[in-house]
């Protein structure tokens, strides 16, 4: 029973075992930028969906991306050199968390590779 006395329906969690080790995000740009949604809340919340997945960048062409939605990333492995149009530059390493607001134009580079987990407010597959 809910707090108003109405009955509630149980909703199961979703579990994605070992995704950091096994999920291979598809190539999205250049020869070295990979991104893939693992899951999205779109099915249960179509008005404000929030997909989550992995972004991997390998040594090569910088990725310049202008966000049309809000997104957060946590760096899992390797590193990224991240800069924005205001001149801010960060060497991102494991454990760092970033918030990229809608409208931010971000440049990602790496001299090896970087892997990040993200969640954003957009439709699934719309990055």
TrEMBL record:
Protein origin, superkingdom: Eukaryota
Pfam families to which the protein is assigned, alphabetical: EutQ
Name of the protein in question: (S)-ureidoglycine aminohydrolase cupin domain-containing protein
Natural source organism: Hortaea werneckii EXF-2000
């Amino acid at each position: 029973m809910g707090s108003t006395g109405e009955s509630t329906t149980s909703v199961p969690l979703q579990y994605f075992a070992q995704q950091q080790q096994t999920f291979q995000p598809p190539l999205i740009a250049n020869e070295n930028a990979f991104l893939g949604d693992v899951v999205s809340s779109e099915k249960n919340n179509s008005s404000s969906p929030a997909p989550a997945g992995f972004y991997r960048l390998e040594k090569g062409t910088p990725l310049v991306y202008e966000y049309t939605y809000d997104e957060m990333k946590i760096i899992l492995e390797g590193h990224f050199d991240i800069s924005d149009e205001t001149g801010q530059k960060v060497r991102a390493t494991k454990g760092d968390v970033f918030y990229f607001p809608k409208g931010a134009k971000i440049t990602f580079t790496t001299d090896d590779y970087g892997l990040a987990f993200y969640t954003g407010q957009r439709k699934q597959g719309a990055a």
